[in-house]
Amino acid sequence: QVQLVESGGGLVQPGGSLRLSCAASGINFNIYTMGWYRQAPGKERELVATIPNSGSTNYADSVKNRFTITRDNAKNTVYLQMNSLKPEDTAVYYCNAARTVWGRNYWGQGTQVTVSS
């Protein structure tokens, strides 16, 4: 059974930082592209950042130079370091594991991030 369990969300003031974690189980983590997506109220889910098993990371323009995605294959965990947070970053953040060539795509349950003074 595949599980993606996010943690690290919460309430933070504008300009603050948070680090999200996503622990994966039930998949061969090393070969999956891992990603973070977010969905704000009334909006569609959007890509935040992805990190493949090898190769370059990818970021949404809105988070470049503020967010950093990393992965620890030994711990089957992907992280999202979020700095200089803005109110518009408020959303539910979802962890994703994708293996496109196999048609596999998995989601976590989401973690709320609220940026407000």
What does this structure look like?
This protein is mainly beta. Helix content is 0%, strand content 52%. The protein has no helices and eleven strands. The strands form two sheets. Strands 2, 4, 5, 6, 9, 10 and 11 form a seven-stranded mixed β-sheet that branches. The termini are far apart. The relative contact order is 0.32. The mean pLDDT is 96.
**Helical residues, percent:** under 10%
| Shape verdict | globular
Report Rg: 14 Å
Spans of 5+ residues with little confidence (pLDDT < 50)?
none
Query: How would you classify the helix and strand content by structural class?
Result: mainly beta
N-to-C SSE series? Answer: EEEEEEEEEEE
Q: What is the first-to-last residue Cα distance?
A: 40 Å
Give a short account of the largest sheet.
7 strands, mixed
Secondary structure: number of strands? 11
Taking all residues together, what is the mean pLDDT? 96
Strand content: over 45%
Number of continuous helical runs: 0
Throw out a few tags for this protein:
4-stranded antiparallel β-sheet; 7-stranded mixed β-sheet; mainly beta; 117 residues; globular
